[in-house]
Specification:
alpha/beta, 13 helices, binds calcium ion, 14% strand, D-Maltodextrin-Binding Protein, domain 2, single chain, 370 residues, three-stranded mixed beta sheet
């Protein structure tokens, strides 16, 4: 297996080669015209759905921008804006689509109002894990479908982060049966929200920065966010008693970088390659960061803050799974393109699940055996 460091080293050497090739041409034309010509600096704005510098997510967007700045040798400089700095979180998609900013960082399920099918490109309840999602997007036809979907909106999407399996959320009452979800006003985005709706709850879609005060004031009864690393940073343990798992609704959410098509087309080829490959690096690095940091944060939540961790009962999860199957299947019937995305996703999910019975799950089970 090739390590990430090795891949990074290979990428740097590839980019170095491209950069040198570019310099060669530049020098040739400089010699023919003037000796004072200098390399042009292109400046881009990146708007995000995250609070500025928020651990993991905001810093993940910063990391992507820094990668582009570094790999381009400063020729393409990307400035990151937190939610609300240039546009509100939920206007990220439109801002990049119309060119107010050249790039954005967020998640496709935030834009379900534009097209409900976009949600397949972030996460589906009881769907793919982070590892499986990367397989579908990079090697299973998923990214081509995603690019087709966003092309109509003048955007190029790239996977640009993943947090792994999330937690189920913060509650102030115990969830013992499916009826305990009735009347519950919970922040839960995407298709998971629709599943909660069918279970009798009221889903609310709020950006992360508003969740703590919404829990504190009682505007919402419960919230999910991400996992221990991010949830500790927001301090949800101060406003909720129980921390439930597993995150059935977000088993491996793919975050996105979105790029304005005209801005991308205007770049020279080597800078285009740098932008796309920087997204790949940022995608892998975020998952590595979350895998390492969630562990420590979980210990802090339990040992320092005495958070009560609870598992959703099997009956509740079984009911949520059957409601999820209904919701996802109905989404596929919306139009021909939705059906195409659903068919690609479902057929990959079926095959990868069969393989992971023998590989990931079999190994994790045997490792846990005493
Ligand atoms: Ca979440």
């Amino acid at each position: 297996m090739i390590s990430l460091n090795r891949i990074t080293a290979l990428l740097f050497s590839l980019l170095l080669t491209l950069g040198l090739a570019g310099c060669g041409e530049q020098n040739k034309s400089d010699t023919a015209t003037t000796s004072t010509a200098k390399v042009e600096t292109i400046r881009w704005k990146m708007v995000t759905t995250w609070p500025k510098n928020f651990p993991g997510l905001g810093t993940g967007a910063n990391n992507l921008a820094e990668k582009i700045n570094q790999l381009s040798g400063g020729r393409l400089q990307v400035k990151v804006y937190g939610s609300g700095e240039l546009v509100p979180a939920m206007e990220t998609f439109d801002a990049v689509s119309r060119g107010t900013a050249q790039m954005g960082h967020g998640a496709a399920y935030y834009w379900k109002g534009k097209n409900a099918t976009f949600q397949f490109f972030s996460t589906v309840p009881f769907g793919l894990t982070a590892q499986e999602m990367n397989g579908w997007l990079y090697n299973g036809g998923g990214l081509e479908l995603w690019q087709e979907a966003y092309a109509k909106h003048n955007l190029i999407p790239m996977p640009a982060g993943n947090m792994g399996v999330q937690m189920g959320g913060w509650f102030n009452k115990e969830i013992k049966t499916i009826d305990d979800l009735k009347g519950l006003k919970m922040r839960i985005p995407g298709l998971g929200g629709e599943v909660l709706n069918r279970a009798g709850g009221t889903p609310v879609n709020l950006p992360g920065g508003e969740l703590y005060s919404a829990m504190q004031s009682g505007t919402i009864d419960a919230t999910e966010w991400v996992g221990p690393y991010n949830d500790l940073a927001f301090g949800f343990h101060k406003v909720a008693k129980y921390y439930y798992f597993p995150g059935w609704h977000e088993p491996g959410t793919s975050l996105e970088a979105i790029i304005n098509k005209e801005a991308f087309s205007a770049l020279p080829k080597d800078l285009q390659a740098i932008v796309l490959n920087a997204c790949k690096l940022a995608n892998h690095e975020m998952l590595a960061e979350y895998t390492a940091r969630n562990n420590d944060a979980l210990v802090t939540l339990v040992e320092k803050h005495q958070v009560q961790i609870k598992r959703f009962p099997d009956d509740v999860l079984n009911k949520l799974r059957s409601l999820s199957d209904e919701v996802v299947a109905e989404l596929a019937k919306k139009d021909a393109f939705s059906q195409k995305v659903f068919d690609s996703y479902s057929s990959y999910r079926k095959k990868v699940m069969a393989w992971h019975e023998y590989s990931e799950r079999a190994y994790l089970n045997v490792r846990a055996e005493k």
